[in-house]
Amino acid sequence: MFIILRNNCRLVRAASAQDTKDRLKAVSDEALERGAFGAPTFYVNKDTMVFGSDRFELIAHLLDEPYPGMYRSNIQ
What is the pTM of this model? Predict the structure, then answer.
């Protein structure tokens, strides 16, 4: 339990740091400029926007990678 609390405190400190906030603002601004309208939004091969957590199979196809499915037991 102590380890979990210690890690949570570290996470809260990191999330509260100004450089973290600045980075979040920068990547959020970039996403909006590129046309993102929700989360999760992925950019594949620099310019193909893919939206939604149900699009991992499409992302794998765009990257010419096999898609093992959502369960790790399918990985060969």
Answer: 0.63
